[in-house]
Write a structure and sequence with these properties.
Layout: H1 3-27, H2 30-38, H3 42-70, H4 76-91, H5 99-109, H6 114-143, H7 153-178, H8 180-196, H9 203-225, H10 228-255, H11 263-277, H12 288-301, H13 306-334, H14 342-354
Helix pairs in contact: 1-13, 3-4, 3-6, 3-10, 4-5, 4-13, 5-6, 5-14, 6-7, 6-9, 6-10, 6-11, 7-8, 7-11, 8-9, 10-11, 10-13, 11-12, 12-13
C-alpha cells in the first residue's frame, strides 16, 4: 500500500473514531450533554484553545533553535509550518511515526539541506524525550501512590509500562552518545538473531541501514554537545510546552466552575494518560487515550462532566491538529508540494549525497 493510500486509510480510521466518540458523547443523554456544555465558561474554552496554540509554538521554538543553529537564515515561519506538518502526520500514523519524514521534506523545500533538517529534528526529538522522561519521574515519585488503590490500580501498571518504554528510549540514546561500539554490537546481534528466526529476511541490508541510522544519531549527539546554550533553551521551551499541554485539562476543569482538585494532581493525571498512550500502536492511541483519560478524571470531574471533558480535551489535542493539518496539506498540494512523496524524495537525496 502506497504512502498516500495509507494516510487516507489512517484519516478514515480517525474519522470513524471521531464518529464513535460523538456517539458515546450523546449516549450520555443529549439533554445532559447540553446542560453540561452550558455550564462551561466560554472564556476558559478559549483559553484551552490558546493552550494548544502555545503548545504548537513551543514545539516550533524548540525545533527552530536547532534549525537556526545549523542554518542561520532559517525563518521561524518555516519551523512553525514544519511543526504543524509534524503534528498532523503524527496524529494520523501509528506511534506518531509519520511526522518526521514530512518535516524533513518541508524543511528541504524551504532551503535547508537534508543533513541540517535531519539533525535539527533529531536533536529536537532527543531533547523532547529527555524532558518528557524527567516530567514522568517527577509525577511518578509524587503522585503515582494516589492511584495504586481502587479502580485505577490496573492503570498504574500501564503507566509504569509506558514509563519503562520511554526510559528505554533514553537509555538507548545515552548508549549511542557514550557507548557507540557497544550499541552497534548489540544492534548487530539483535538483527542476526531476528534473521535466524526468519523475522528479518535480508540481514546484511538491515545491518547496513541500522549502522547508518546509529551514525546519524551519534552525529546529532556531537552537535548537541557542541551547543549547550542552545540545548538549554530547547529544554526550557519544552518544559513550558509540556506544562501548557498538561494544563489544558485543568483549564477545562476550571471552566466547569470546579476548584476542589489541585493543579499538580490534574497535570499528573494528564501525564499518566500520555504515558499509557505512548505505547499503543494506533494513530493517536485511539481508544486508549480516551479510555485512560476518562478513567483518571472520572473521580475529578464526576459522572456529570467526565464524558464532555473527555470530548473537549480529545478534540483540542487530537482532532484540531488534524483539521489544521488537512488545511495546510491541501494548500501545499495546490502549490505543487506532495508530502506523501517525502520519504521517496529523502531517500533519493540520501543516495545522491552518498554518491
Amino acid at each position: 500500500m502506497g504512502k498516500k493510500k495509507t494516510n487516507k486509510v489512517n484519516l478514515i480510521i480517525c474519522g470513524i473514531a471521531f464518529i464513535v466518540m460523538v456517539f458515546v458523547l450523546f449516549s450520555d443523554g443529549i439533554d445532559n450533554i447540553f446542560n453540561a456544555l452550558k455550564q462551561m465558561n466560554p472564556l476558559f474554552l478559549v483559553i484551552s484553545v490558546l493552550c494548544m496554540v502555545v503548545y504548537w509554538f513551543g514545539e516550533a521554538v524548540a525545533t527552530h533553535l536547532a534549525a537556526k543553529s545549523l542554518e542561520p537564515d532559517t525563518k521561524f515561519r518555516t519551523s512553525l509550518l514544519v511543526t504543524m506538518i509534524g503534528q498532523y502526520f503524527n496524529c494520523i500514523t501509528p506511534f506518531a511515526s509519520g511526522g518526521q519524514p514530512m518535516q524533513v521534506y518541508t524543511y528541504m523545500k524551504n532551503g535547508l539541506p537534508l543533513g541540517s533538517a535531519m539533525t535539527a529534528l533529531l536533536s529536537r526529538f532527543i531533547v523532547y524525550q529527555f524532558t518528557l522522561t524527567l516530567y514522568s519521574i517527577v509525577f511518578l515519585i509524587f503522585k503515582l501512590s494516589m492511584f495504586t488503590e481502587g479502580e485505577l490500580k490496573p492503570l498504574t501498571f500501564l503507566v509504569i509500562i509506558g514509563f519503562i518504554i520511554n526510559t528505554f528510549v533514553i537509555v538507548l540514546l545515552i548508549m549511542l552518545a557514550f557507548f557507540r561500539k557497544a550499541t552497534n554490537k548489540i544492534a548487530h546481534a539483535v538483527v542476526k538473531l531476528l534473521g535466524k528466526i526468519h523475522i528479518i529476511k535480508d540481514v546484511d541490508d538491515k545491518i547496513e541501514y541500522i549502522d547508518k541510522e546509529l551514525a546519524q544519531y551519534y552525529e546529532n549527539f556531537l552537535f548537541i554537545k557542541s551547543q549547550p546554550v542552545m540545548v538549554l533553551k530547547m529544554f526550557i521551551a519544552t518544559v513550558i510546552q509540556l506544562l501548557v499541554y498538561f494544563s489544558i485539562t485543568y483549564v477545562i476543569y476550571l471552566g466547569f466552575g470546579m476548584t476542589k482538585t489541585d493543579f499538580f494532581t490534574i497535570i499528573a493525571c494528564q501525564a499518566f494518560v500520555l504515558m499509557i498512550s505512548s505505547f499503543v500502536p494506533l494513530p493517536g492511541a485511539m481508544g486508549a487515550a480516551e479510555g485512560s483519560y476518562a478513567a483518571f478524571f472520572k473521580g475529578i470531574f464526576g459522572a456529570h462532566y467526565t464524558v464532555v471533558s473527555t470530548f473537549i480535551w480529545r478534540f483540542l489535542t487530537f482532532y484540531l491538529p488534524i483539521l489544521v493539518g488537512i488545511v495546510i496539506n491541501l494548500k501545499m498540494s495546490r502549490s505543487g508540494v506532495d508530502l506523501n512523496q517525502a520519504a521517496d524524495i529523502i531517500k533519493e537525496q540520501e543516495e545522491a549525497n552518498e554518491r
